[in-house]
From TrEMBL:
Coiled-coil regions listed in the entry: none
Natural source organism: Adineta ricciae
Pfam families in the record: DEAD (PF00270), Helicase_C (PF00271), PIN-like_DDX60 (PF23002), WHD_DDX60 (PF26076)
Taxonomic path: Eukaryota, Metazoa, Spiralia, Gnathifera, Rotifera
Alphabetized InterPro entries for the sequence: DEAD/DEAH_box_helicase_dom (IPR011545), Helicase_ATP-bd (IPR014001), Helicase_C-like (IPR001650), P-loop_NTPase (IPR027417), PIN-like_DDX60 (IPR055124), SKI2_subfamily_helicases (IPR052431), WHD_DDX60 (IPR059032)
Keywords: ATP-binding, Helicase, Hydrolase, Nucleotide-binding
Residue ranges occupied by any Helicase C-terminal domain in the UniProt entry: 1376-1537
Compositional bias ranges of the Basic and acidic residues kind: 783-800
Domain of life from the UniProt record: Eukaryota
Chain segments carrying region Disordered: 59-110, 748-800, 1335-1361, 1653-1672
Name of the protein in its database record: Uncharacterized protein
Biased composition (Polar residues): 59-77
SMART domains in the cross-refs: DEXDc (SM00487), HELICc (SM00490)
Length: 1895
């Protein structure tokens, strides 16, 4: 039992793979393990665990100290040297250099980073204490163990373990330390814990001890301490793919409302607020989410328990909530009513629980209220915020643990149409039921509101207000309030004014309500304000309960406080104010219903009464009705050169009403002037971007030793020969049980068959001669034909004789097998079958195999119980039996196969007599994916290796025509052949011997693969260009590169001629255009090339749109270059996958089939339908058919199997696919007719987890589970396998586990099974050594004797004697197998395919890894390896090659093998859930299984992946390609540099114009025009911006420090601000290295922590310096630095504010009125200003509306009075364009604003994670992982990126210093030398630590 407890505990404490959810589930599922009789076992196991944790912790701590002490002793290694292995350079010269480097370091490190395993000791401690706390609550015998464990952990020196102990004590006290004795036990030694970091938790413990239960259960107490009692971890992540791909997620409506209500430009407390602005923002928000997937995959949920928290505090929010729900429910067709849900509670509401079960959301998106300022919140009191904090804390915890959702926060988010970034949070422990009950009790109360409007009155209101429900609601509310109080109440005196307000809302144009901010102040009495709020409250209630049929299209615009008060003021000030006639009509009819007499002076009299009673007071400032509306035009500096002039020419045609700028000459006085600013006159050359990338050719061409240069080149191409050989191996294909039909033969087989047929025809010619006597005579064969026929017959006879001899050899070998060794005998025949090509001999050998299979089958039938391994062999035998029978039938050409083979069929199915239905059923169920398939294509000389499908012939034809091609086809379908065919066409073009073909790939692994394949196919004609190195780029004919490197070439003037030779450009994995990190690079390279392109992908949903875009680009290109009209772009879409992907769950040594339908329910299917790529294997089709038949289905029946497949005896796969379509059509009918109960019944019956026999996931630590999993794969013949996970550490750990598993197995076998054999061999070896020693002595004496008798003729020994001596020597040698048994690896102790592989290749590949990674060599001997990005190039390629050759059978990999890499495998497994495992990643990774031509079927296995996540992965739709605008500030600057330095100005000009004018974002012709003009405006203002920063001159040439931007463009816009700070000599003045690193981290890192600066708006230096930062966050910057950054941002706001204004003004000039249409609901608020002259409405339109002066501001925002100046003043990147008339892309690439304080949309400021400065201090990845809450993969990528920035800056400074002496003036050396010294030192220190940590 001890082992079982230890296994169970290790599983629970496995923080890497056991999720928090599984931790809690399995504790409650295993009560038997906690019985008192096992207490001793628990005590021993827990003690060992605690000791192990302490041991790990102490080792970790010591290593951290060592890192800190030794890091400064390291010298820097340049980034280019880091990847020296990339070019496989093993030369002596390089080794000498490395030795010199090593000796200079003065330190050697034995540990290898690639093999470090990290144990999260803190989380293990946390889990163990929680487990024991649970046990002591449920089982009293655990109490002592719990307290002992607490005490042992308390003694730890590890600070974070101490924090865990304190947190456990606090939680224990809160959840119920029932007795004083219990409290004393918990707290008796707390006085010894005095560290500063412990104080917050100690304060909570003290509060718990000093407070009674009632006080603890208050929201005030809970809100202060919940974060300590139930903490959560937060990580700011890019989650766009989750939002895009998931089938369903939830948005909490109340927190969305409250979050937007705190928006920086919304002021609800001012002038009683308005409803339209906020609802407009929410629509923009929801529409942007909608744009992620172009479907509504979210549900907006509202909970009354949330609403009750703030209901009484803010009437305007009540009204907004009611408006929002009504508006979205009634008006938003894109969402629909079912997407808006209201529930009483999320905790105990049965309706919500049912909804969750049906919808199965993947995550919840909400705001947790933690970032609002509790002391100074503008909307809520402190008590209300406390309630909200408590309920949302519990809300998140409940959804994580009870609903099993992921949690994403909208506290701070970045949301654009191509990007979603936000906080993902995870609670450390679940909240108890007691806490939920307490919080729900605090926030609940009853609502008692009566309705007074009678039915008759309601009908009267309906008749009056049928066009607009707003008037109905106002009248109903006034009536209800009058009835509630009395007619004489104060509120009734406001009735006419309220009716006037709603009449104006109905009548006024939205454009006329943008009132000026300068409205004179209006003071309202408390009673007046309270009455308005009471009205809003009642109005909200009536709206919520409204059942009126009146139109609700304008319900979003229900109240406008500023308009209401302005109306009062204007009427009061103007004695002659009158209203429009149509407004009066509304007023008269409404007042009549209210029985209020209407008069001309009614409103003036009412207002005068209020003024006289002092309920309202107006300022005396008069309103100028005739104020002039003048706008000052922005002065834009004119930058002019032919390229700029050509691009901006359309702007000059715009009239003055369309634009708001004047072009003025560029002069020095407009350059931004700052303190310390340096003045530049010339361009400081920082070198070409390409020259910084290590060039292998130039590096070795400098050697004076020509022999060395030749050796290097030869070794390089030998290496690619080796790699190409590993790619080209044919014997790794899955020929086992491949079933062949007559038309499925290959060209080679067809030729053999044709030859055989001709020979057999000739042999039977004499027999048939008599039959043809009466037929017309045919032409006699010619002499040549007779000779050919004779030769063919002679060859056939010779081949038949040869094969007859081979048959005898096989028979002789079969006799050597034991009679019951069927496996060995069958394998022998399988291995020899390829040698038999003639029909007769192949049939003869097949019959022998068939006889063995029949006997083997009988032996299985005799057994009653089969082991797992025997069951697997039996299943494979059935498939093999069927395959042999099929081929024999084909070769014998049986006419009536069903009758002839019936005996064998009955044996196979084990049923007699056998019905046809059962026979077909057996094939679909057991043979499944291996059912024979007829090839549809015809042989094509262009692809001699296989018969292409029709769609493949289509792309061959398109390449021949030099068309651009887009191919969308499943992974492993063969689309890559288009690439190599295009390469061959370029190489074979005799008219163009210098033409270049470019292949663009997203990953290094894919680049190396393509290089190896090209070497194999075409020879050494290729070059490679990546970010690390380049090789043969100038002389190659095929260039293999990545998008970033190709962009460098296309933008380099030095390589312009080379780029003009590009004839074809191939973009593999083109869906990477949608990747948020570098999507713009893909798009820019496609725009910058000037040739046809090929785009390949398996995961693109809008390929037709992509084709239209490429067509538009090519037409634009042809027009600019004045070439012929291009051919149409060829679009090929192929959806069928030849190899099925069978999905399984793994648990307890079993694989459970996972049917796709079992993952769906009726709700999902009836609302969304089946996925577009939904398909079923034969077995899955049969299971679905059975499930449907078991229900009372009401749909079109499906024919029986016999009816469908007869008269054929084989269920051919093509026919099976047709049957599957019939079944799917029947199932779709159920969906279309919404037969929900039937669908759910079918889904449940197909779900394996509904059975009690399966326990998924398996309760075992992954370290022990993985070995059993590998054995299961081996037994079921499902190897090779790739196991994917996101953790490189887990990859290494699992490899170690499997290797150790087989090492221990071998150790056991050597002591048991092979013990006696090994002992005998050891004795024999000792004897042999003794004999050899004696023989050597004799030989020595003979040699001496021979030297003494030189003249004696010894003569030669007879041949017979020599032969006898050789035989004697053989007796004294061990065979290879014997030697392997003694010193090698036994067969059962490894997965490696040692005897069926190319041994020379294996030895060569393993030798390459032996020195750099000996541990991996140990794994490889066991057939195991791992693969991730941190392995060097040679190691990765060796792993790939060994796996392809089936030597390595299982690889644990991160996503490095997911994209396009040729790694054919039978099985792909996924282990450990993570955010990186999304639907797109799943599709790419699973595509490795079942590769066309290599595997008949693929298998997908899930291990420990939650069922909801599996559902998300499998049913998510293939996403569309969506790209962001490729234009940016630095991209424009790079285009300027290209044009200025290009030899061919026309080429540079035209390619640049295409790149700027043809973004993918604009699809329709109208959109293309708008995007083109928008980009022109951006270019115009960006040129102004660059000039004012002194980065370009008036001709657009780069000057000053602009060269830095060419190398730092990937960190835009921080690079621009960095240059500005350099320019102001800031870094000259800062001398502390850590302060410089802190500043650089503020600029170049952007990872917010979920901690808000409480005084973000204060600029006081004192406050900033005295406030203490949270731990692991960046220090605040000094006032001086902030001032410099502010000056830069002010310039950005000034210039790009003008850009925003001009673009919006231009778009409004198009008169589309789009700015007056709500974005999601498409409700139109179209302008209509036909008012009567001289009326109040007329004056508003002509004298007060600010819309014409603020064209950038949306009319929907106008009611809040926001001006363009205010918007720009409050600007931050998160707010972006929400308040603008048009939704512009204002990302930091477009508007280079640098927000160092990481503001959110509420203007709250967040601290940034200090991982860079922390690492600069201690140099330890492990500390960052533990302290900074970052994953290890994240850490490496983040540190590597920051290191690249430092290296780039250092190299730029070095280039400038090297070039400066060549300049005559030489006056700037004093500026650069101190800079270089400081930054070089920092770079050296940082990179030294990095290379030490990642050695």
């Amino acid at each position: 039992m001890n082992n079982q407890i230890e296994t169970f505990l290790h599983y629970l404490l496995d923080t890497e793979t056991t999720s928090e959810m599984m931790f809690y589930e399995n504790i409650s599922k295993s009560p038997d393990l906690f019985h008192v009789r096992y207490l001793k076992d628990w005590e021993q196991t827990v003690l060992r665990t605690i000791q192990q944790v302490h041991r790990f912790a102490s080792v970790s701590t010591s290593s951290h100290v060592d890192n800190g002490q030794n890091s400064k002793e390291l010298t820097m290694t340049s980034s280019s040297e880091e990847d020296d292995d990339d070019d496989d350079d093993d030369s002596d010269e390089k080794q000498n250099n490395n030795q010199n480097k090593s000796s200079s370091n003065g330190n050697s490190y034995s540990s290898n980073k690639a093999t470090d395993f990290y144990v999260d000791t803190v989380r293990q401690c946390q889990r163990l204490l929680r487990l024991l706390h649970y046990c002591q609550q449920k089982y009293p015998h655990f109490i002592s163990l719990y307290y002992d464990s607490l005490e042992q952990y308390r003694r730890s020196d590890i600070e974070k373990i101490g924090l865990v102990v304190l947190q456990q004590i606090a939680t224990h006290l809160f959840e119920g330390a029932k007795t004083p004795n219990e409290q004393e036990q918990l707290t008796e030694k707390l006085s010894l814990m005095t560290r500063l970091s412990y104080q917050p938790i100690l304060a909570t413990i003290q509060s718990l001890l000093s407070s009674d239960t009632n006080e603890i259960n208050t929201t005030n107490f809970l809100s202060k301490h919940l974060d300590i009692l139930y903490p959560r971890q937060a990580a700011f992540l890019d989650v766009r793919q989750e939002f895009r791909d998931t089938a369903q997620y939830l948005i909490d409506g109340d927190s969305l409302l409250l979050s937007m209500a705190h928006h920086t430009n919304i002021h609800l407390n001012s002038s009683f607020g308005n409803t339209l602005h906020l609802i407009f923002l929410i629509e923009r928000f929801l529409h942007t989410l909608f744009q992620q997937s172009h479907k509504c995959n979210y549900t907006l949920v509202f909970f009354e328990c949330h609403y009750h928290c703030y209901r009484e505090d803010s009437p305007i929010l009540n009204l907004l909530r009611a408006c929002l729900i009504a508006h979205l429910s009634e008006n938003v067709e894109k969402i629909g009513k079912i997407k808006i849900k209201r529930f009483v509670s999320w905790y105990d509401d049965r309706d919500y629980l049912q909804f969750i079960r049906e919808e199965r959301p993947l995550f919840v998106f909400y705001h947790d209220m933690s970032t609002f300022d509790r002391e100074n919140d503008s909307l809520f009191s402190k008590d209300v915020l406390a309630k909200l904090l408590c309920i949302y804390h519990c809300f998140g915890n409940y959804h994580q643990y009870a609903v099993q959702c992921q949690l994403y926060l909208m506290n701070k988010f970045i949301l654009t149409e191509t990007s979603v970034k936000c906080f993902q949070i995870q609670f450390d422990r679940d909240c108890p039921k007691k806490l939920f009950d307490t919080v729900m009790a605090i926030t609940s109360f009853e609502i008692n509101i009566n309705t007074y409007t009678g039915e008759q009155k309601r009908q009267e209101l309906e008749n009056l207000c049928e066009d607009d429900v707003r008037l109905y609601l106002y009248l109903q509310t006034i009536i209800d309030l009058n009835e509630k109080t009395n007619q004489e109440s104060f509120l009734s005196s406001l009735n006419p004014l309220l009716i006037l307000h709603v009449a104006l809302l109905i009548r006024l144009s939205l454009l006329d309500r943008h009132l000026p901010l300068s409205i004179p102040s209006i003071e309202t009495h408390t009673r007046f304000s309270q009455s308005i709020r009471e009205f809003q409250q009642r109005l909200a209630f009536n709206l919520s309960a409204c059942t009126s049929k009146c139109s609700q299209s304008k319900i979003a615009d229900l109240f406008d406080g500023r308009l209401f008060l302005f109306t009062l003021y204007h009427i009061h000030q103007s004695a002659t104010a009158r209203l429009d006639s149509r407004t009066n009509q509304i007023l008269q009819r409404s007042l009549e219903i209210l029985r209020i007499p209407f008069s001309e002076t009614l409103f003036q009299d009412t207002i005068n009464q209020l003024v006289q009673s002092n309920y309202i007071n107006f300022s005396v400032q008069p309103i100028n009705d005739k104020q002039t509306k003048t706008s000052v035009k922005q002065r834009v500096l004119k930058i002019s050169n032919p390229f700029v002039d050509a691009y901006l020419k359309p702007l000059s045609a715009l009239n003055g009403n369309t634009v708001a700028f004047d072009l003025i000459p560029a002069e020095d006085r407009y350059i931004l002037q700052c303190r310390g600013k340096h003045s530049w006159e010339t361009y400081k050359e920082t070198g070409d971007e390409i020259d910084r990338i290590r060039d292998n050719d130039s590096a070795h061409s400098k050697s004076t030793n020509h022999r060395f240069r030749t050796k290097h080149v030869q070794k390089l191409y030998d290496y690619f020969d080796l790699y190409g050989k590993s790619l080209a191996t044919r014997d790794v294909r899955d020929h086992q049980y491949r079933i062949i039909l007559p038309t499925a033969s290959t060209p080679a087989q067809q030729q053999i068959e044709n030859t055989t047929d001709r020979a057999e025809a000739a042999a039977s010619a004499g027999k048939k001669k008599q039959q043809h006597k009466n037929q017309p005579k045919k032409a006699q064969p010619t002499k040549a034909e007779k000779i050919i026929e004779q030769n063919t017959k002679r060859l056939l006879d010779k081949r038949t004789d040869d094969e007859a001899e081979k048959v005898k050899n096989v028979e002789a070998q079969l006799k050597q097998f034991k009679s019951d060794d069927y496996v060995g005998a069958i394998n022998l025949i399988d291995g020899s079958l390829e040698n038999f090509e003639t029909t007769t001999k192949r049939l003869e050998i097949l019959k022998k195999k068939f006889d063995l299979q029949r006997k083997f089958l009988r032996t299985f039938r005799k057994k009653t119980n089969l082991t797992n391994e025997e069951r697997s062999h039996f299943e494979l035998l059935q498939i093999g039996f069927f395959a042999t029978l099929c081929e024999m039938t084909h070769l014998e050409n049986l006419a009536n196969a069903f009758d002839v083979n019936k005996k064998f069929m009955e044996e196979l199915v084990n049923e007699s007599p056998l019905e046809a239905e059962k026979w077909y059923r057996f094939q679909m169920e057991k043979i499944n994916s291996r059912l024979p398939r007829r090839e549809q294509g015809e042989p094509d000389q262009r692809l001699p290796d296989f018969i292409p499908d029709p769609w493949q012939v289509k792309f061959l034809d398109a390449v021949d025509k030099q068309q651009s091609i887009i191919i969308v086809a499943p992974t492993a379908s063969g689309k890559t052949y288009a690439s190599y065919y295009a390469m061959g066409k370029v190489l074979k073009d005799k008219d163009d011997t210098t033409g270049l073909c470019v292949y663009v790939a997203p990953t290094k692994a894919l680049i190396n693969q393509v290089a190896g394949t090209i070497q194999m196919k075409f020879g050494p004609v290729f070059g490679i260009f990546t970010k690390e190195f380049r090789m043969n780029t100038q002389a190659c004919r095929i260039l293999i590169t990545i998008p970033e490197s190709l962009e460098m070439l296309l933008l380099s003037a030095s390589y312009q001629r080379r780029c003009q030779k590009i004839r074809y450009c191939i973009f593999d994995e083109i869906h990477c255009m949608s990747d948020d990190t570098n999507s713009d690079v893909w798009e820019r390279t496609m725009l910058l090339i000037n040739c046809p392109m090929i785009g390949l992908s398996a995961t693109v949903n809008n390929g037709e749109v992509l084709r239209e875009w490429i067509t538009y680009v090519e037409e634009k290109r042809a027009k600019l270059f004045n070439t012929t009209k291009p051919l149409p772009v060829c679009y090929i879409s192929h959806h069928e996958r030849l190899a099925d992907l069978n999905k399984y769950l793994y648990s307890n040594r079993q694989l459970y089939p996972l049917h796709p339908v079992s993952l769906m329910n009726a709700k999902q299917l009836t609302t969304r339908g089946l996925p577009d790529d939904f398909s079923l294997s034969p077995c899955e089709t049969l299971r679905l058919t059975d499930a449907v038949q078991q229900t009372n289905v009401q749909a079109e029946p499906v024919p029986t199997l016999t009816e469908h497949f007869s008269p054929g005896w084989i269920a051919e796969r093509n026919r099976c696919n047709e049957y599957s379509q019939l079944v799917c059509r029947q199932f779709r009918q159920l969906i279309d007719t919404k037969q929900a109960s039937t669908i759910d019944s079918i889904s449940t019956s197909l779900n394996p987890t509904t059975s009690n026999q399966i326990s998924y996931p398996e309760v075992k630590p992954i370290s022990s589970l993985i070995g059993e999993f590998v054995l299961t794969l081996k037994e079921k013949s499902l190897l090779p396998c790739i196991v994917f996970t996101d953790s490189r550490a887990l990859c290494e750990e699992l490899s170690e586990c499997v290797a150790v598993y087989f090492e221990e197995l071998e150790k056991e076998l050597r002591q048991t099974k092979y013990k006696h054999q090994i002992e005998a061999l050891e004795k024999r070896r000792a004897l042999i050594e003794k004999v050899q020693k004696t023989a050597k002595a004799k030989q020595a004496s003979k040699s001496a004797s021979k030297r003494g008798n030189d003249d004696e003729d010894q003569g030669d020994k007879p041949d017979e004697l020599k032969k006898m001596e050789e035989e004697d020597q053989l007796q004294f040698r061990l065979s290879g197998l014997e030697q392997e048994l003694l010193d090698g690896v036994v067969e059962e102790g490894t997965l490696a395919n040692r005897f069926h592989c190319d041994r020379d290749l294996v030895e060569e590949l393993t030798e390459r890894v032996s020195t750099s990674n000996p541990k991996l060599i140990r794994y490889m001997k066991r057939g195991v390896a791992y693969h991730h990005e941190q392995l060097n190039n040679r190691t990765r390629l060796s792993v790939e090659g060994l796996f392809r050759h089936r030597y390595v059978q299982i690889v644990f990999s991160t996503w490095t093998l997911a994209l396009g890499v040729h790694m054919p495998t039978k099985t792909v497994a996924f282990i450990k859930d993570s955010i990186q495992l999304d639907a797109l990643q799943y599709r790419q990774s699973s595509g490795r299984a079942g590769r066309r031509g290599f595997d008949v079927q693929g298998n997908i296995i899930f291990i420990d992946i939650p069922i909801p996540k599996i559902r998300h992965l499998t049913i998510s739709a293939i996403p569309d390609i969506q790209t962001r605008n490729p234009i940016s500030v630095t991209f424009l600057m790079r285009l300027l540099h290209l044009y200025s330095n290009a030899e061919d100005k026309k080429d540079a000009n035209n390619r640049s114009l295409v790149a700027l004018q043809c973004p993918f974002s604009g699809q329709t012709s109208h959109a293309q025009e708008i995007f083109a003009m928008r980009n022109r405006f951006h270019c115009l203002h960006t040129l102004d911006f660059l000039y004012r920063l002194n980065l370009i001159n008036e001709q657009g040439d780069l000057i000053g420090l602009a060269g830095f931007l060419k190398h730092l463009y990937h960190v835009e816009p921080a690079d621009i601000l960095f240059i500005h700070l350099l320019d102001t000599q800031l870094f000259h003045q800062v001398h502390d290295e850590e302060e410089i690193v802190n500043l650089l981290a503020q600029l170049f890192t952007n990872m917010p922590s979920l901690t808000v600066r409480q005084h973000s708006n204060e600029t006081s230096t004192t406050n900033r310096q005295t406030s203490r930062n949270p731990t692991h966050t960046l220090r605040s910057l000094s006032a001086d630095i902030r001032q410099r950054i502010q000056s830069y941002n002010c310039l950005v706001k000034d210039i790009y504010g003008s850009y925003i204004e001009n673009v919006n003004k231009y778009m409004r000039s198009l008169n589309t009125n789009q700015e007056c249409i709500l974005p999601l609901s498409s409700i139109e608020f179209l302008p209509s200003s036909d008012y009567d002259n001289g009326t109040f409405e007329y004056n508003l339109h002509h004298h007060h509306s600010q819309q014409s002066q603020n064209p950038s501001i949306s009319p929907f925002v106008g009611p809040s009075g926001l001006t363009h100046q205010q918007y720009i003043s409050n600007y931050n990147p998160t707010v972006a364009s929400w308040d603008l008339a048009y939704n512009l892309d204002l990302s930091p690439r477009i508007v280079p604003f640098v927000d160092i304080d990481a503001h959110d949309h509420t203007n709250a400021s967040y601290y940034l994670n200090s991982y860079v400065t922390d690492y600069f201090r201690h140099g330890s990845e492990k500390v960052l992982h533990s302290e900074n809450n970052l994953s290890r993969g994240q850490i490496y990528a983040l540190l590597f990126d920051f290191g690249k920035v430092l290296t780039s800056i250092k190299m730029s400074l070095e280039e400038i210093l090297a070039a400066e002496p060549k300049i005559d003036s030489n006056r700037d050396l004093g500026f650069f030398k101190p800079l270089h010294k400081k930054l070089h030192t920092i770079e050296e220190m940082f990179s030294g630590k990095f290379h030490r940590d990642y050695k």
